Amino acid sequence: VVPGETALAFYKAKNPTDKPIIGISTYNVIPFEAGQYFNKIQCFCFEEQRLNPHEEVDMPVFFYIDPEFVEDPKMAKVDLITLSYTFFEAKEGQKLPLPGYQ
Predict the structure, then answer these.
(1) Residues 76, 72: Cα–Cα separation, whole Å
(2) CA distance 93 to 18
(3) Is residue 22 part of a domain?
(4) How many domains does the chain have?
């Protein structure tokens, strides 16, 4: 991917179980310092996704790397940025605690 140009990638998700699963994906960018230059235009992350039993889907991510990436001396030796996703099953009625609150 050339910084400043948009790109489209697809992630494959498969539900290997016999029951439907509803979940949410979060993403991570490695190296961490490059994350500030990674910009998602459209993404499936942070939205509930339903996968039916044994369903396999391609989920698109439309993104670009900020052109300022090439100007940052801390990024001079970075020639590979990895985007990964973790899929968490959503639990109905589960309330997640807010950090710092009891």
Answers:
(1) 7
(2) 22
(3) yes
(4) 1
pLDDT > 80? residue 19: yes
**Would the pLDDT of 101 be above 60?**
no
- Cα atoms found within 13 Å of the Cα of residue 16, Cβ hemisphere only: 1
Q: Sign of the CA dihedral 97, 41, 8, 80?
A: negative
Can you give the CATH number for the domain in which 48 is found?
A: 2.60.370.10
Q: Which residue has the tokens 């993104």?
A: 63
What is the Cα–Cα distance from 24 to 88, expressed in whole angstroms?
Answer: 5
Summarised one tens digit per residue, pLDDT across range 20-68 is 988 888 889 999 999 999 998 887 777 788 899 999 999 889 999 999 9
